[in-house]
């Protein structure tokens, strides 16, 4: 299986300065997003950041992105509404909108203990979202991020995990497949696998996210598998 940078084994990266990628989900009291739309939008936001010219080469965010990817790949999802959301929009970053209206803003990485005050005061807890109705079956000709059916994670935690999975897939893709994914608007689906499907996926060699265990679940838990068609073995 693919070795995950999110695993908890001892690693020289632990001795490097630690950065975190902030993700802010818009969570208005009267009109919260659907859970699946938020999970998919979070993953697409991470891909959008990874692909942005400002995050690579000589771009203005490239140094922070490099430092973040050289250490543990941490992501933290916080929620905002009203004036808090408007303030988050004034900071450097990219807002991505989901197919059903979910909004997620991804910001360049910041030091683990150096969050901007506008983001540091936002709440992490409370991102409990539901789907009004079950999502339809995933289109298997497009990328699917499969959730572990045995884990119970909050929406915020799961948003970070789907971001991890999308990132693992992105790292493994050749340039042509990255370009095709970009041209599709980073189309993807997030679905919960059946127990049987999950067992098959674990044997498939596809990228697997293994959580570091800082919050909610045990260290080393397999949370999401990135099923991109270009990465499937014949």
Which percent range describes the beta-strand content? 15-25%
Class based on secondary structure composition and strand pairing: alpha+beta
Shape: globular
The mean pLDDT is: 91
**Helical proportion?**
25-40%
Number of discrete helical segments = 7
Radius of gyration: 17 Å
Query: Any low-confidence stretches, pLDDT <50, length ≥5?
Result: none
Query: Structurally, how many domains make up the residues?
Result: 1
Query: In total, how many beta strands?
Result: 9
What does the main sheet amount to? 5 strands, mixed
Distance between the termini: 16 Å
What does this structure look like?
With 234 residues, this protein is α+β, with helices and mostly antiparallel strands. The chain has one domain (19-125, 134-231). It has helices spanning 35-51, 62-70, 82-90, 117-120, 155-172, 175-183, 195-202; strands spanning 19-26, 74-80, 94-97, 103-106, 110-111, 144-147, 189-192, 208-210, 222-227. A hairpin with a 5-residue loop joins β3 and β4 (103-106). The radius of gyration is 17 Å and the shape is globular. The two termini are 16 Å apart. The mean pLDDT is 91. GO terms for molecular function: peptidyl-tRNA hydrolase activity.
Write a compact overview of the structure shown.
This protein is α+β, with helices and mostly antiparallel strands and 234 residues long. The protein contains 7 helices and 9 strands. Its EC number is 3.1.1.29.
